[in-house]
Amino acid sequence: MPIVLIVAEQQPDGHLRKATLNAISAGRTLAEKAGAELHLALLSKDPSKLAEELKVQGVKAVHTAAAPELEHYLAEVYAPVIAGLVQELKADYVGMASTAMGKDLMPRVAARLKAAMATDVMAFNGSGADISFTRPMWAGNVFAEVKLTTPVKVFSARATEFPASTGGQPAGEVKAFTPKLEASKTKFVDFKEVKSARPELTEARVVVSGGRGTKGDFKEIEALADELGAAVGASRAVCDAGWVPNDLQVGQTGKVVAPQLYIAAGISGAIQHLAGMKSSKTIVAINKDPEAPIFQVADYGLVADLFKVLPELREALHKLKE
Amino acid sequence: MKILVTAKRVEDPESKIKVKPDGSGIVQEGLKYKINPFDEIGVEEGLRLAAKHGGEVVVVSIGGKEVQEQLRHALAMGAHRAVWVNHTGTLDQLALAGLLQKVAEKEKPDMVILGKQSIDDDQNQVGQYLAEFLGWSQATFASKVESLESEQEKNKVPALQVGADGKTVRVVREVDNGLATLECALPAVVTTDLRLNLPRYASLPGIMKAKSKPIEELTPEKLGVDVTPKIQVLKMSSPPPRKAGIKVPDVATLVDKLRNEAKAV
Ligand SMILES: Cc1cc2nc3c(=O)[nH]c(=O)nc-3n(C[C@H](O)[C@H](O)[C@H](O)COP(=O)(O)OP(=O)(O)OC[C@H]3O[C@@H](n4cnc5c(N)ncnc54)[C@H](O)[C@@H]3O)c2cc1C
Ligand SMILES: Nc1ncnc2c1ncn2[C@@H]1O[C@H](COP(=O)(O)O)[C@@H](O)[C@H]1O
């Protein structure tokens, strides 16, 4: 039987990165179409706890590698281990969520396997051995259906296009394998986490984003986000100016989000920004320029000064709760 | 230091991309072309490193004869010489990385700087493939700690920090939830993120000088690389349009719609 292998991602704090669950659903969709088994790979200094969490995700097996060298993720260390596992299992497909790690790692794994790769896969088409992938190009202006013709096929899955896996019985087997460790020419120096009490941008039910129109004053954006229990996002202009941390950037080259509600204030709606939020369920745009392109994708547009209406909106929403 | 930088020719990011009715590609008419924005950042970083540590910046582009425009642009920014891999027709990331591997083996740079992604293919792969093919260390999504409005940026200080012994480079990377720092042994492959630097404009003297700088021509055959595509684009389509929205006159209407129509709050 063919095999689909999904690589799980452990965050620096030891928890599972949630996008892994979306990647598992992507893997399951692919496995159903390809008539394949779904397997997981987990690399860690100590994978035992996460492996228990993962084995109940409706998978055949969780293959774990444990080694001190796997504590801090490095592409050069992880790639040979995963490629080795793919060869051992004779897996046909290997994929991962399109996170920063997924984007850094999977092409290196693919290179090792002389395999072709599709990035940010949104859907799988066809059945059996005849599978193609749908993926965005030109900042999401184009959806391309692509076929990979190498024996092993590698992909990263866009988390917003697949629901988070909610588990499945019977529990899969946890199988330890010996990682093929190679000396790395790169050393991990440090990781500076940007801590936030707000929900994670890619996981939040509501996102409130600010653009250059805020002139760097994010107080009202943040206050509205807190009223809604929302995550804060931003346009590139805002991140470039250093007004907010880089990893809040939404767009073609930042995070892709698809919350129930996306509120964009003082954002013009450049195609690169739209690429990261167009699939949101409901979009609200607040902009003082009635011609701003953001209004073309907004379900509800409010032509107004954000400094005036954001406090009003927050108070009105607060009153709803009373 | 010798630094190899890439310069892909792509559609101007401001242009409106439309799919041909038969799904065979995009409508080319009326499009303007530029150097991939991430590659322009790579050229800038290469120039800053060469200015600080001495050495040479070699720019490489793969494509038909039109890519010489992007090579000239990089030369006008200040790159010393160019390599053009002449090939017409689609190339996938495996082929591109294979060609760049041969160019790197020939040029023997201390560092190859590429963009993290090309804004047409949006694959985000070539740098990582190249690092693996060469067996070199890899640092993707290079960024800088200081803001693009900082003094360091105004003074064109390189963000990539080469060690005192010239054997390593420290790279700060934009990753999920923060910044990760790596130390790579040289030679290394680095890919740029948006906030690494603000690329300079080509000056008029720069443009004049670029005209006489050499462009070496190579081909996949000369480099001995099989470029048969392993990624086939079967069909392109336009994303489904969003249904048209409405403008609301005030906050009260907005809240009402969000509550009773969208059921979003
Ligand atoms: C290679 C590349 C990649 C990119 N990737 C991304 C990406 O991932 N994400 C991204 O966001 N961008 C990205 N961009 C940048 C993008 O093209 C735009 O430049 C950027 O999104 C603009 O940000 P903005 O809307 O905040 O600013 P602007 O375009 O300057 O818009 C500001 C808006 O605020 C409005 N405004 C001003 N004052 C007020 C007020 N008081 N009240 C209400 N409205 C007000 C104005 O009318 C205007 O519409 C990328 C660009 C390139 C070339
Ligand atoms: N035809 C090309 N010529 C030169 N460099 C390229 C070419 N195609 C891709 N690259 C480089 O590879 C990077 C990543 O591209 P991609 O993996 O296609 O998103 C780009 O930013 C370029 O630096």
Question: How far is it from the N-terminal to the C-terminal residue of chain B, by CA?
Answer: 57 Å
Q: Report the portion of residues of chain A in β strands.
A: 25-35%
Principal-axes shape call of chain A: elongated
Mean pLDDT of chain B: 97
Short description:
The complex is a heterodimer of chains A (322) and B (265). By secondary structure, chain A is α/β, with parallel strands linked by helices.
Written description of the protein model:
The complex is a heterodimer of chains A (322) and B (265). Chain A is α/β, with parallel strands linked by helices. In chain A, strand 2, helix 2 and strand 3 form a beta-alpha-beta unit. Chain A is elongated. Chain B is α/β, with parallel strands linked by helices. Chain B has one domain: Rossmann fold, CATH 3.40.50.620. In chain B, strands 1, 4, 5, 6, 7, 8, 9, 10, 11 and 12 form a ten-stranded mixed sheet that branches. A two-stranded antiparallel ribbon of chain B has the order 2-3. The interface between A and B is large, with 91 and 84 residues. Strand 11 of chain A pairs antiparallel with strand 10 of chain B. The structure holds flavin-adenine dinucleotide (FAD) and adenosine monophosphate (AMP).
Which helices and strands occur, and which strands form pairs?
The complex is a heterodimer of chains A (322) and B (265).
Chain A: E1 3-7, H1 19-34, E2 37-44, H2 48-55, E3 61-66, H3 75-89, E4 93-97, H4 100-112, E5 116-121, E6 123-127, E7 130-137, E8 142-148, E9 153-157, E10 173-176, E11 186-193, E12 206-210, H5 219-228, E13 231-234, H6 236-240, E14 261-265, H7 271-274, E15 282-287, E16 300-303, H8 306-321
Parallel strand pairs in A: 1-2, 1-4, 2-3, 3-10, 4-9, 5-9, 12-13, 12-14, 14-15, 15-16
Antiparallel strand pairs in A: 6-7, 7-8
Helix pairs in contact in A: 3-4, 5-8
Chain B: E1 2-6, E2 9-11, E3 33-35, H1 37-53, E4 56-63, H2 68-77, E5 81-86, H3 93-107, E6 111-115, H4 126-134, E7 137-143, H5 151-154, E8 161-162, E9 168-175, E10 178-185, E11 188-192, H6 204-210, E12 215-218, H7 220-223, E13 231-237, E14 246-247, H8 251-260
Parallel strand pairs in B: 1-4, 1-6, 4-5, 5-12, 6-11, 7-11
Antiparallel strand pairs in B: 2-3, 7-9, 8-9, 9-10
Helix pairs in contact in B: 2-6, 3-4
Flavin-adenine dinucleotide sits between chains A (211-213, 235-238, 249-254, 266-268, 270, 272-273, 276, 286-289, 292, 305-307) and B (13, 37, 119).
